[in-house]
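EI: anyone free to look at a 345-residue chain?
SC: sure, send it
EI:
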Amino acid sequence: MSRPESAVVRLQTPADLAEALPYLIGYRPRKSLVVAAFHDREFACAARLELPVMESDWFDFAADSSRAIASEFDTPGLPTLDSVVLYLVDDPAPGQNGHTVATHLAPLAGLLHSAFSHHRVTVQLSLCISANEWWDLSHDTDPGPGIALPDTTPGPATVAFTVAGQLPAPSEETLTAAFAPLTGRAADTMRTALDTVASTNTFGAARPRTAHALLEHAATAFTDQATTALPPADTATLLYALSDRLVRDWSMSLPDTHTNPAARRLFTYLATAAVDSYEVLACAPLTLLAASAWYDDDEALARLALRRACLLDPTAHLPAMLQAAFNMRISKEQLKDMARAGRPA
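SC: here you go
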């Protein structure tokens, strides 16, 4: 098995595959099902899904996730989906350990195995990863002792990815901290500005042209590295403006009309400004941040920003569509073409 990069990384054992997980999606996930898809024993792509909270949802989750992933590969021009490696990742609850997690998730691994088999997709391995240990749940419903993942000393898979030019995979917490909502006095100031815009319906009386001009001005301001924030009133107006679908779609091509670093910094800032009780307003800037990160080949940040956007507004179509596209590794050129198509004159 290999990853299609400039250098080939060979993953020959379950231990190699367990160690390779963060490199397949770009970060160390939590509470996740990660499906690594293979064609002719070569890695094609990886998709991450949130593990369901309730065990009663497991059957539907297995059926829905297997059907969604298998159907993606029915798209003309994509390779045939031959097999998958399943990763079930979760942290132990207080007073529990990794073995408890593996035992709990073993039935879900069985349901997923059956669901993928229904679509004629072979499950090579079903791995549970918890508390820095891994278990092979491919056949065991009663897992034995876990096997420790490399901790301070890199294992063979880590060494291979490093030689191939892959950077060490950061934790999920490290990446999501970049767009976490403001706290403290800054959050209080921002909340007051958002309250004012909400109560006076400031953006509701404005036209998209006004919002576009404000966004252009903000993107220009963020080309200066010294700019780290905008006036609270402007920030609040922009957040409400981006909740308009046409304004958000128009903003997708800001990295074309300005520099991508400036657009990325602006979108990151706007996502952090959607403070407590207004967090749903972060959906649009997080979606735009994901696109900007994808242009920079920062796939891990792009995926996590989209995941947060989808959680904030499950009804939003664009982040869900981009999430599916990123799972199928859409090219930067394809994404830019899509952004340009959504920018009216």
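EI: The beta strands are 32-39, 42-50, 83-89, 122-130, 133-136, 147-148.
SC: 👍
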